[in-house]
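Lab meeting prep.
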Amino acid sequence: MSFFSKLKDRMFRSSSKIGEGLDALVAEGAEEQAPAAEAAHEAPAPAPAPKVRPDPEARVAPEPAFAPPAPAPETRPAPTPAPESAASPRSAPSEDAPKPGLFGRLFGRAAADEPRRVLDDAMLESLEEVLIQADLGPETAVRVTANIAEGRFGKKVSTGELKAALAAEVARIMAPVARPLPLYPQKPQVVLVVGVNGSGKTTTIGKLASQFKAAGKKVVIAAGDTFRAAAVDQLKVWGERAGVPVLTAPEGSDPASLAFDALTKARAEGADLLMIDTAGRLQNRADLMEELAKIVRVIRKVDASAPHNTLLVLDATTGQNAITQVEIFRKIADVSGLVMTKLDGTAKGGVLVALADRFGLPIHAIGVGEQIDDLSPFDPEDFARALVGLDG
């Protein structure tokens, strides 16, 4: 199974929440607008205008070909062209034009039968509510709906068109931050991993270490959360599974001292990466800030450029609380990138869009399960399509 298929299958709570919301949004509006359309249909039709035979010498501009949105961050999705009037010369059937085949007629009829609703102020307000409920946040939801409305306002749209436009807008926001964890020639490359307890920090370290080991890198893990025996034991399990050494210290030991010993050993053994787990007790921010600052001071006695990466691991189930965590850890530590876990267990996956829109920090990877291959580099287009419930 491809990671996109896994992502789409396991993000069902987010995708179904947005998808069902968009389905209801269009269907309800289409039902409300139907009586008005029927009343207009029953009204006496105006006298037909005299037909004017088109000049055979006149040249008619060809229909513009559909072009997908450009990948540049500032480029907004191209608006869907409005359906041509039946009286337009351009829509008149041409004798030379090939007739659609059976499948073309079937799918064309299915698209024509799909409910459509005029994109007006009421629909945009409801769309904002759907996005806010999916945890995109008020500010991001307003910007996204405004961009979707551009070129489409006052025109009828179907659910499929709305999902495609939303996916394109989400991908546009996410594209600039989709960057894999950079690897440097510096040996060992020190990766400091931070995050609140229960965010999936320990599991993420184990998965990354296993993947780097499988790619031929020599990895060392330091179990720096010395106040939680369960975190140390979990890292030991992942270390054994991946064949990666895990350096530990007695419970309650100084994490900075362990980090110093681990870096010294990793350098002596020629390791490519040293991954350091840390505590995540936000209830006393002053102590945590001092603990992380001390770790950085101590390891810089061995390598003045360390740490080379500071990863913040976030739990998707926390929703908008993830924004607060980013704000706090950016003050406590020099966060260089994000990893989002547990996207398979929440309807709040849209918070990742809010994080990208607000902070612009690189998103290195996302997790959708407990297995080793359930952590993958972040792909903005796959994520956007899975979030809104589109097929691959």
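Slide two material, second protein:
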Amino acid sequence: MALPEVAVIGGGIAGLAAAARLGGAVGGPARARVTLLEAGDHLGGKLRTGEVGGVQVDLGAESMLARRPEAVELAREVGLADALEPPGTAKAAVWTRGALRPLPAGQLMGVPGDLEALAAAEVLSPEGLARARAERPAAIGAVGEDIAIGAYVAERLGQEVVDRLVEPLLGGVYAGRAAEISLRAAVPQLLAIAQGGGSLVEGVHGLLDRPQAGGPVFQGLRGGIGTLPGAVAAACERAGVELRLRTPVTGLRRTPEGWLVNGQAFDAVVLTAPAPVAAGLLAADVPGAAAELAGIEYAGMALVTLAFHRADLPEPPPGSGFLVPAVDGRSIKAATFSSQKWGWLAKAAPDTFVLRTSLGRYREEAALDLDDAELIDRSLADLRAAVGLSARPYAGAVNRWRAGLPQYPVGHLERVARIRAAVRGVGGLALAGAAYDGVGIPACVASARRAVDEVLTPPPGQRA
């Protein structure tokens, strides 16, 4: 029996992972003949490397969660097992209340499970610490099915815990606002604690006190995480997957036999484009899903990468970098000292010190419209104030990721369930990507696996 023809729309990591799995490049034999269509001129989406000052660095995502296995498994499947490398240091800080302060130990996404470690870090003011110590436990069942993480933590531990810890940590993942982000979607472990009632601090302490899987929490790749898409693409091509760049999909229509993609017939489609693009493509044939997809909002951010001569730095900045709470009113929201964090980078360019900053938050994206020189100057001004960095970089680059991070407000998972229900009723179609079950690389790969399992399954009314 001939294999079905499947189109994968979108060449980010979710699309590449789906194409690789469908086409037999990873995960077993081929289940389809696959054509991947990408509108742009490169694959990988927000996973991209580039050269800054003669050094290859990541210009987008730089690490992947290793405690969740899907991304690391994909890297190994495409021949990158020997390139996996954890961060050389994980000593992050918070730049707040006029000083660089250590990120407290014993916390989960900024929610403390150890009040003594919180006190020692001095991230909170004395008043904020006193409020956290005077926790207001929740009643069992008071939270319901979901709540904004900011509202819940502020009620239990005070607004300052949200402003100086939860907000900057969530901002590093979503570039979003704690006052709107869903507890259930973003940190489901906390929802279980909240629904059980009692002390949030004790619940987090108990969660963190459980035995953890061995190995590093995060992994990088020598040469940068941006090398992963190229390795997946190469594996796809070896397996016979057709990869079409500069091929925007302008038409997607259901037919009695399957789908037409830009007029070409396919038996099924895996759609991994961002939600607004997916909404436009599905408007005619799956209007219910399209309407829900159109409601998913995105945040944009700018990444500034700077290269310094090590000889110009009397003493490199400490640790792996720092987070910046929005309440402190700075331009940057985070800084990563890449040459300290990644051993492979320090070895590849021993005479260069590379760092990067990020600017821009959900509904605070005016920074993306500033020119490159202004973004670099603002970054340098904040770095000077935070760590005393007075040297000038010999090279710099700015990458703007407009509408790069989907937002997960309260009700997001219910929206995703409605989208998937509408899609299942059509048949021969599945969705994957950062807009659904998580914005990290492992979550995107997992969504691709799910889509592969779903796409060739007939809808309920058509099953034999």
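Talking points for slide two:
The two ends are 18 Å apart (CA to CA).
The domain at 5-45+225-296+408-462 is CATH 3.50.50.60 (FAD/NAD(P)-binding domain).
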